[in-house]
Amino acid sequence: MTKIPERTDIVTRKCFRKEELLRFVVRDGKLHYDPSGKAAGRGLYLHPESRDKALDGKAFSKALRHRVSPEEAKEAIDESR
Q1: Residues 46, 21: contact at Cβ < 8 Å?
Q2: pLDDT tens digits for the chain (81 residues)?
Q3: Which of 12, 68, 71, 78 is the most buried (most CB within 10 A)?
Q4: How many domains does the chain contain in total?
Q5: What CATH number should be reported for the domain holding residue 15?
């Protein structure tokens, strides 16, 4: 029996299969979209339907323990589209 990796969406706090989610990381003090899912740095997962709710940056800041401005959040989310 193969175990399917699951991660939690930072906005809804629901679990989804890892491949259904978008991964973001903080590198060099800046939030980046991680399409490979393997970039070094503290990461978090966001469901594509939760993008608009995460635009204020508060969910990113809380999950990353790093201040993320709304502009920085919007920039990273735009990268993922």
Answers
A1: yes
A2: 899 999 999 999 999 999 999 999 999 889 999 999 999 988 999 999 999 999 999 999 999 888 999 999 999 999 999
A3: 68
A4: 1
A5: 3.30.1230.10
In a domain, 33, yes or no: yes
Structure token pair of residue 24: 């973001």
Residues in contact with 43: Cβ distance below 8 Å, sequence separation at least 6, in sequence order: 23, 24, 25, 34
d(CA 28, CA 51) in angstroms, rounded, equals: 23
Domain span at residue 21 reads: 6-79
User: Does a structural domain hold residue 1?
Assistant: no
* Predicted TM-score of the model (pTM): 0.91
- Does an H or E element contain 37, and which? none
